[in-house]
């Protein structure tokens, strides 16, 4: 018999990962604005994503809709538990999107306001996403089929620290994206900034990797008991290897490998999160099967998703292919 819950969990995980990757470097550009005051270079930074940025949220919509239809219990509990950070995330994305367009059309006297709005929206959206992930990993209180905690449970040290960690991760994604897409002085600025960001991200990952098992015995047992220890050891080893690879690639002035290795680093971090919580979709106790909708509903949705996902992948690939290569100072899309 087909286990539709596992299939839908895989689809939601894939959509979430695609969103993190694509909107990650997009948001990361806004996070990097404070490190570059040059108006022309700021325009170049934005123009690297101008043709593709508004399609990145498609994956967020797909993941949210999939969660609503395939795991309605998880959707309702998460919406209740994380209503504040999720609302803040949406406000940040909306405000950032408005600033993205308006900064190109504003007069010189108003351009500074929209640049600051672009930065503020990027920080708010990224930090809120990190807080939501941290709160999920920290655990959500569920009694029966209802959220039984407080709407402010997310306001705790671990989720807030995860919010800071995701800001650093997205900044690194944006930085290595700009290394790949720009040249000359902007390329050199981003290359100089990348190594400190890699080191900062390694420190954050190390702290979270220790904080999580020390706070949750089940996660500690998952990672540090044999034979799991041997199976999962490649994950932290590959994190160190990818970080070392990014730093070496920057030193030899590589253009593409820093971004590709950063993608691998993000994937490894996401894998570590999955290892810690599986098979729970609402940590620490509600599994994907307990939260699932009826199999007939999941099967009906799957038919539509098998048509939609290839279309999304197709136009995403085509848009990135068409606008491949380095951005020039005299090129723009507004």
TrEMBL record:
GO terms for biological process: aerobic electron transport chain. It is found in: Cell membrane. It is a multi-pass membrane protein. Its main location: membrane. The chain crosses the membrane at residues 6-35, 81-98, 118-137, 157-180, 192-214, 229-247, 259-279, 299-323. GO terms for molecular function: electron transfer activity; oxidoreductase activity, acting on diphenols and related substances as donors, oxygen as acceptor. Keywords: Cell membrane, Membrane, Transmembrane, Transmembrane helix. GO terms for cellular component: cytochrome complex; plasma membrane. InterPro entries: Cyt-d_oxidase_su2. NCBIfam families: cydB. Belongs to the cytochrome ubiquinol oxidase subunit 2 family. PANTHER family: CYTOCHROME BD2 SUBUNIT II. This is Cytochrome d ubiquinol oxidase subunit II. The lineage of its organism: Bacteria, Pseudomonadati, Pseudomonadota, Gammaproteobacteria, Enterobacterales.
